[in-house]
Design brief:
It contains 4 helices and 3 strands. The protein is of the alpha+beta class. It has one domain: K homology (KH) domain (GMP Synthetase, Chain A, domain 3). Strands 1-2-3 form a 3-stranded mixed beta sheet. A hairpin with a 5-residue loop joins strand 1 and strand 2. Helix 1 crosses helix 3. The chain is elongated and about 70 Å long.
Length: 130
């Protein structure tokens, strides 16, 4: 039962922060941001929100700086909308999961292309068998 409340708050946090970033945070330094997930401590006092940012490394760093700088303004609204007693400390962190997935997909495609160019026939002997 103890894990259900933090998970529910994490989901609420993503929804609330997404709307706040989209509607209230009008900073041209923020790139195209997607909130990909969140973790909330069991006591609901700390939250880490994972973001994916389109653009180069500098755009990512700048977006994270702006988001983490605006946390103070967003905490009160999160607390009010999520009906929490204590405003959680929020940290935005970059989520490189999409990039890792793309890199793995590219490697798998390379392997598949290599297999098409150099097929191994079942009756061929490999060096280990010789």
């Amino acid at each position: 039962m103890s894990g259900i409340r933090p998970e529910r708050v994490a989901t609420q946090l993503i929804d609330i922060l997404s709307e706040l970033i989209r509607k209230e945070l009008r900073d041209p330094r923020i790139g195209f941001v997607t909130l990909t997930g969140a973790t909330v401590s069991h006591d609901l006092r700390h939250a880490k929100v994972f973001v994916s940012v389109m653009g180069d490394e500098e755009a990512r760093k700048q977006t994270l700086r702006v988001l983490n700088g605006a946390v103070g303004a967003m905490r009160g609204e999160v607390t009010r909308q999520a009906r929490l007693r204590v405003a959680p400390e929020i940290i935005f962190a970059y989520d490189d999961g999409i990039e890792r997935g793309q890199r793995i997909f590219a490697l798998l495609n390379d392997i598949e292309e290599d297999r098409k160019l150099n097929p191994i026939l079942p009756d061929e002997e490999t060096p280990e068998e010789a």
